[in-house]
User: Which sequence fits this backbone?
């Protein structure tokens, strides 16, 4: 029995986290949040994602990738969530996954090395249909290629015209795309689309769990020091018990996301259930932990100046992606009740 | 990631499963069978069955062979617990002795204690109780006031213990006793091994809100115990108790999941029979509790991994207790929603709900005993998160 990250996977995690801590901290995030007109995909961070293999993680080695799985990808996603990092990373990885799993050899040769190296920015959406409007696509305006629904399958959209959509989550950029027909991905059967949906769901759940853990850690640190009534507020049981419950729930969500990623990579019995459990748990706990971050920082947590709102707003957006907690629970009910 | 057991562990599973299939009478799994027996009959049946299991080599799974154990791996213990649940085997009659006392004796007992306690325990020749809680010392164990006064080679013990599992069936009781007059809090306490078959010990059943009597009260009135029947040093009982309680940190979570998941399926079955299974509120609540049960299973895999790596989980055990006890209680709260207006009835739509209600009532106890949820939250906040005391 070994249910944990390996040393290599942990090293990957450390690499992403130390880069963000040293080179792309909260102030850098603030720069992106407060400049709604820029691409929202800062060049320095993108370069690091390319150079350090974050974009290449699941791309096969024959296409210049690392050939790793969703377990490794969720490590990166979690770290990016913890840093509330603005990046087209997830859309690019998911676009590459779509091309890998459903693309023709020509499409793979054309796109995978470019997506892996950061030469091309990818986006992935399951809303709308091409040709037509694709609503609120993450990084739709900067994407060189967008994987989008088309009929029952998926298509590779290029050259779509983009209309930016405002969002209170400033750690991302969204745009409506006016998409042409695109180039169909020939292998996009219903099973493959479901598999890609699972990959997207797990990576979003991982971002959420990264957000939740970081929100909790920062709140604990603050409440250890913040004094009222002459003592640290973290010494009050009303706060201790709430934070203890959050710690339990964040830890459970971490387990659930790790297992769901493993389930996508290996498809054991019950993998559908594992994915729904992960997204349900991560969605709930990210909203709870970030709301608690605001509450247990007191007034400062409600200010624009404090970073708590980056976490809260990002959690709000991602909790709803690819099925919110209630939708996942209905999926769980269908799987266990019928 | 490797979520499999070793070949040796899987062989052990097959061997155990075959033995259980051959040695659990079919009528035991008939609904209402155990309820049809009185407490004494039920206890003796389980006691004898468990002795046979030990003789077949299916006991002391992780204990060293020198103590009559099997010398197995943590994975084998997890498999063992899980298979017993799957086979609907009766619960052990010696939980406190097997889980807590035996490993403590192996660690710090004298040679005589090792010889006299462990073998008889393994074969259920001696049923052990735990004498910790008192009417005035629940969560605050160090407030205990049961006192022992030295009289020649003996201690003479007076006081009252409560929430004693199997009190009326017990042969011996490992008891926290204040043996230094005037000592306070955790100082001056000894863990004495008291024979319950004497005039000075009066064990009475304690009728619980469920109507059952898993717990009892033990009144100690001039009970005598030889001073060398002390586990650990005299006056050092607090340390002995902390060591003893640390043995709860096993990997029993996988079997708990198996049991709770079966109960979930039973509740779903009732929902179907009542035509409530398509109600969106019921479905949402069931799915939420199932989410937590699945997380419990994963947490158990995490704990087993850490145990196999030889890591001390330390205060994480508090979190484990919180997770399973709260999830179990939530599960049975959903049962009320399934039943709706008929929540308290003994029978609905031809289903005898009484065994299910018994579980629901039991679920109110699990967040109290073994360290209440509030105590576990304090420990988690202070010792794991590092919040100030």
Assistant:
């Amino acid at each position: 029995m070994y249910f944990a990250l390996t040393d290599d996977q942990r090293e990957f995690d450390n690499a992403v986290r130390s880069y963000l801590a040293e080179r792309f901290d909260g102030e850098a995030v603030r720069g992106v949040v407060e400049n709604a007109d820029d691409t929202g995909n800062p060049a320095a961070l993108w370069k690091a994602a390319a150079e350090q293999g974050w974009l290449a993680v699941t791309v096969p080695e024959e296409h210049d990738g690392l050939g790793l799985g969703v377990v490794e990808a969720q490590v990166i996603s979690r770290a990016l969530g913890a840093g509330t990092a603005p990046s087209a990373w997830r859309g690019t990885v998911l676009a590459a996954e779509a091309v890998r799993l459903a693309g023709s050899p020509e499409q793979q040769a054309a796109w995978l090395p470019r997506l892996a190296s950061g030469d091309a920015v990818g986006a992935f959406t399951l809303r709308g249909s091409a040709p037509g409007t694709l609503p609120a696509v993450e990084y739709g305006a900067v994407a060189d290629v967008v994987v989008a629904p088309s009929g029952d399958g998926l298509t590779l959209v290029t050259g779509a015209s983009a209309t930016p959509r405002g969002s209170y989550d400033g750690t991302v950029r969204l745009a409506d795309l006016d998409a042409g027909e695109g180039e169909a991905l020939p292998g996009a059967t219903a099973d493959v689309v479901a598999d890609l949906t699972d990959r997207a769901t797990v990576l979003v759940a991982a971002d959420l769990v990264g957000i939740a853990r970081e929100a909790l850690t920062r709140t604990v640190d603050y409440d250890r020091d913040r004094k009222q009534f002459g003592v640290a507020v973290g010494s009050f049981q009303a706060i201790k018990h709430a934070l203890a419950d959050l710690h339990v729930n964040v830890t459970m969500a971490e387990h659930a996301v790790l297992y769901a990623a493993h389930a996508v990579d290996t498809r054991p019995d019950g993998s559908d259930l594992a994915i729904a459990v992960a997204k349900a748990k991560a969605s709930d706990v990210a909203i709870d932990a970030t709301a608690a971050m605001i509450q247990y920082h007191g007034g400062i947590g409600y200010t624009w100046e404090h970073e708590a709102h980056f976490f809260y707003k990002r959690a709000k957006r991602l909790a709803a992606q690819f099925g919110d907690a209630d939708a996942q629970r209905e999926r769980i009910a269908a799987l266990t009740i019928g | 990631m490797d979520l499999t057991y070793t070949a040796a562990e899987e062989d052990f599973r097959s061997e155990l499963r075959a033995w259980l299939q051959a040695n659990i009478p079919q009528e035991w799994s008939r609904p209402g069978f155990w309820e049809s027996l009185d407490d004494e009959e039920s206890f003796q049946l389980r006691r004898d069955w468990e002795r046979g299991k030990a003789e077949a080599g299916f006991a002391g799974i992780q204990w060293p062979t020198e103590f009559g154990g099997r010398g197995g791996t943590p994975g084998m213990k997890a498999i063992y617990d899980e298979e017993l649940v799957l086979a609907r085997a009766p619960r052990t009659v010696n939980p406190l002795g097997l889980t807590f006392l035996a490993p403590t004796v192996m660690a710090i007992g004298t040679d005589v204690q090792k010889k006299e306690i462990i073998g008889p325990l393994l074969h259920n020749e001696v049923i052990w109780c735990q004498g910790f809680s008192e009417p005035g010392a629940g969560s605050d164990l160090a407030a205990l006031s049961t006192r022992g006064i030295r009289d020649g080679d003996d201690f003479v013990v007076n006081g009252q213990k409560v929430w004693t599992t199997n009190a009326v069936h017990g042969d011996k009781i490992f008891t926290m006793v204040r043996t230094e007059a005037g000592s306070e809090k955790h100082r001056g306490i000894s863990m004495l091994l008291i024979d319950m078959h004497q005039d000075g010990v009066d064990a009475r059943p304690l009728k619980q809100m469920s109507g059952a009597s898993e717990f009892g009260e033990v009144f100690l009135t001039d009970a005598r115990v030889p001073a060398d029947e002390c586990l650990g040093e005299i006056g050092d009982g607090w340390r002995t108790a902390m060591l003893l309680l640390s043995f709860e940190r096993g990997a029993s979570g996988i079997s708990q999941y198996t049991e709770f998941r079966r109960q979930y399926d039973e509740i779903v079955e009732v929902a179907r029979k009542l035509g409530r299974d398509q109600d969106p509120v019921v479905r949402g609540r069931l799915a939420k509790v199932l989410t937590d049960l699945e997380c419990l299973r994963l947490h158990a895999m995490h704990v087993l991994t850490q145990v196999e790596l030889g890591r001390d989980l330390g205060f994480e055990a508090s979190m484990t207790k919180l997770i399973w006890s709260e999830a179990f209680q939530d599960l049975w709260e959903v049962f009320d929603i399934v039943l709706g207006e008929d929540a308290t009835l003994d029978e609905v739509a031809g289903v005898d709900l009484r065994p299910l209600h018994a579980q629901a009532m039991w679920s109110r106890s699990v967040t109290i005993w073994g360290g209440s949820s509030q105590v576990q939250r304090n420990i988690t906040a202070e010792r794991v998160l590092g919040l100030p005391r």
In short: Strands of chain B lie at 128-131, 147-151, 154-165, 172-178, 189-195, 201-205, 215-226, 230-231, 347-348, 351-352. Chain B has a mean pLDDT of 95. Chain B touches chain A through 49 residues (CB under 8 Å). The first helix of chain B runs from residue 7 to 23.
